[in-house]
Amino acid sequence: MQGCGFHIARSNKLPLALLALICVSLFLWPWEKAPLMSSLLPSFEQFSILTPVTDVPTRTSSSADKKSSRDSIGSSSSKEMEHVPIFLANDSLASDSALKEANVEECNFAKGRWVADSTRPLYSGSACKQWLSPMWACRLMKRPDFSFEGFRWQPQGCKVPEFSRSSFLSRMHNKTIALIGDSLGRQQFQSLMCMVTGGELSPEVENIGIDYGLVKAPGALRPDGWVYRFPSTNTTILFYWSASLCELEPLNTSGPSTHYALHLDRPVTFLKQHLPRFDVLVLNTGHHWNRDKFRGNQWELYAGGKPVVDGEELADLRNAKNFTLHSIARWVDLQIKRRPQLKAFLRTISPRHFVNGDWNTGGSCNNTVPLAGGSEVSQDGSSDPIPEAAVKGTRVKLLDITALSQLRDEGHVSKYTVKAILGVHDCLHWCLPGIPDAWNEILCAQL
Ligand SMILES: *[C@@H]1O[C@H](CO)[C@@H](O)[C@H](O)[C@H]1NC(C)=O
Ligand SMILES: *[C@@H]1O[C@H](CO)[C@@H](O)[C@H](O)[C@H]1NC(C)=O
Ligand SMILES: *[C@@H]1O[C@H](CO)[C@@H](O)[C@H](O)[C@H]1NC(C)=O
Ligand SMILES: *[C@@H]1O[C@H](CO)[C@@H](O)[C@H](O)[C@H]1NC(C)=O
Ligand SMILES: *[C@@H]1O[C@H](CO)[C@@H](O)[C@H](O)[C@H]1NC(C)=O
Ligand SMILES: *[C@@H]1O[C@H](CO)[C@@H](O)[C@H](O)[C@H]1NC(C)=O
């Protein structure tokens, strides 16, 4: 994947890497057995979500992910909606006229530049405790520099109205905004909650997770998602955890450690079940499409209801991911055809900035100088061509945040992780407030 600043660890770093790995494993192993120790959860989750690229199998990533995939199965116990086939060759692509219409007000929000802005950030990272996970609230960590908070993304040649809580809520009157994806989607969700509340304590906002079957199962680390309703305008903002966006089906319902069929051509059950309730949908996937995640999650590739066998094109995870993104874009397109008021976005990948290694091999992202590598995106196309191609010819819009986020290597959690394990940096997730706020501004400008 381009733009991911990844370099193979030099061999002299390996002993440190292994040590770090062992430490992480030792720290995390007992947590799995004592899931109620909630104070430890943030780091547990954080490490589980960082994507190992090396071939070293890690207990941490596997155990946590297994848990999360099992949880997501458990919570979708309500009866599944009738399976909607994705590839209806006739029906799935938008007609030419619909396409023109969709492109009319198009501005390329991904092209532009970062500008210093004293009105940023839009909320306080110390105050927005109600919605920010401690593992992403850099103001509550030992990080001393916050210059990364003082910038706004200015798309070239488009008018982006200043984000306003009240105008956002009034435009979203009676509407439901759903974000579905991995931890980077969850970051965008938390950012949006802070933006809409201004980071102020908001006791009036109701937790209505139960309406969507999203409650923490006994012994689970967390619910599979969160749903909040703003009663003043009856606006709902929701996040559902689905790292692949695919339906997961346990292969052995009587076994406690079952493998899962990951159906590349079927959207995740939660989305199929609840889509009729959504007015805005933002999907993302990307960082989980690697062998380690698949092994750890016990995911097995399925297409057309049958296992993908070695040697088939789809056995290559790059092709599998591409196939899924195309499938889901076409499926959502079909839903928009039936219900044109639905606005749907496929978000491009959030770039990683590990230098001199990966998350578990001593990789770091130490730069603290904003925009050291430039402030402008001048290219017309996306730096993440797969989702860009997937939405082409559909009514799904691209929320293209890759290149603009690529310029912000100083905005990651970096070495100030909650548990601050020596040598383990987070150059994948962002500090909040921070870069995902700009993703939401671009999103809101299009609603
Ligand atoms: C297209 O739709 C028509 C009528 O709905 C159907 O008879 C035909 O088989 C479809 N073609 C394909 C390729 O699905
Ligand atoms: C809230 O909005 C939903 C539609 O999104 C509507 O069905 C419901 O009646 C509304 N509730 C109130 C109290 O206005
Ligand atoms: C919101 O929904 C309620 C209940 O359906 C309705 O009475 C009200 O007019 C709606 N408001 C807007 C702004 O759509
Ligand atoms: C399913 O799991 C059960 C319990 O672990 C095991 O006894 C059984 O052999 C498994 N079935 C298959 C088909 O793997
Ligand atoms: C991705 O999948 C689509 C549809 O299945 C296909 O047309 C396209 O060639 C694929 N792209 C890549 C880069 O594999
Ligand atoms: C980042 O800082 C760590 C120590 O905190 C150091 O080991 C590492 O070499 C630094 N990386 C870069 C790219 O400067």
Describe the protein in words.
- There is one protein chain.
- With 447 residues, the protein is of the alpha/beta class.
- The chain has one domain (11-445).
- Helices cover 30% and strands 16% of the residues.
- The protein contains 12 helices and 16 strands.
- The chain has helices at 14-33, 41-49, 59-75, 96-103, 165-171, 183-197, 269-274, 291-297, 317-338, 385-391, 402-406, 435-445, and strands spanning 112-116, 151-155, 176-181, 206-207, 225-230, 235-241, 246-250, 260-267, 280-283, 299-303, 306-307, 343-347, 376-377, 397-399, 412-414, 426-430.
- A 7-stranded mixed beta sheet has the order 4-5-6-3-9-12-14, sandwiched between helices.
- A hairpin with a 4-residue loop joins strand 5 (225-230) and strand 6.
- Helix 1 runs parallel beside helix 3 (59-75), helix 2 crosses helix 3 and helix 3 (59-75) packs across helix 8 (291-297).
- The chain is globular and about 55 Å long.
- The protein starts with 13 loop residues before the first helix and ends with a helix.
- The model is unreliable at 1-104 (pLDDT under 50).
- The chain binds 2-acetamido-2-deoxy-beta-D-glucopyranose (6 copies).
- One 2-acetamido-2-deoxy-beta-D-glucopyranose is lined by residues 252, 254-255.
- InterPro entries: TBL (IPR029962), TBL_C (IPR026057), TBL_N (IPR025846).
- Residues 56-78 are annotated as: Disordered.
